[in-house]
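Run log, item B.
One chain of 278 residues. Sequence copied directly from the ordering sheet:
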Amino acid sequence: MRNSKTTQTLSYAVIGLLLILYVVPLLLVFNVSLKSFNEYLLNPIGIVKNIEWGNYSQAWSEGNFAGYFANSLIYTVTATVLTIIVSLFAAFPVARGYVMWSGFIYMFFLLSQFLPNPMVAQYKLMLSFKESVSFFGYDTKLGYILLKTTGTGVVFMMFVGYIKSISRDLDEAAGMDGSGYIRYLFQIILPLMKPVIATGVILTAIGIWNDFVGPIMYLPSPSNYPITFGLKEFRGQYGNNWPLLACGIMIVAAPLIILYTFIQKYLVDGALAGAVKS
């Protein structure tokens, strides 16, 4: 397919606009994080002259990121893995039609995405669980992880659509070979779903790692705070230490950037899946 000069110019213009919207703010925050507080006051948006790498170690200690980072890592990794597993077990029988009213179940999940956030109901549910089971419910790590695992709607629908593109002949062949249900899902179906799993992982991880409102409601104890709470430490009564706050933002964003770097290959494969017929 030949592209005209106008189309090519328009494409570069759109790409340039997206770079400005997404990359430039990140570069500005990184630039501010390397400044001393006095240099920032003199020239807030200018390019840094004297690099202060010590800002990061100071921000790490003042923001108590060591403890918060461990909590966020537990929440994100555990809830993401559980979300992928639960979505796989739910999506496969629905996509294959092995359960009754599979179309209705899929439509139910689809409609649920348009409902308002049930924060009040979830809050009351967590409180009721806390009264009956001490280690599961309000202000507990396990309760928060299970709460985040329930948000599998989008991942579930992605898995259903992708599994429908996988040939049913594999199901029959696996059954004839005596493969069990669990073994078939994890050894055959799961490897074929790497692109869509990568998309589900990044979407789920971003939602959990960057969540700020949820922990305020469900995790009031400082020992359970996630990494996003470290940003509150740089808020002063009369002003903010913006270079240290910028360091905190970069510290919070760095793990997701690293995660995306490692799984971007599968994201691209998932975007291209089905674009070319074999």
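Observations after the first pass:
- DSSP finds 13 helices and no strands in the chain.
- The chain has a mean pLDDT of 84.
Flagged for discussion on Thursday.
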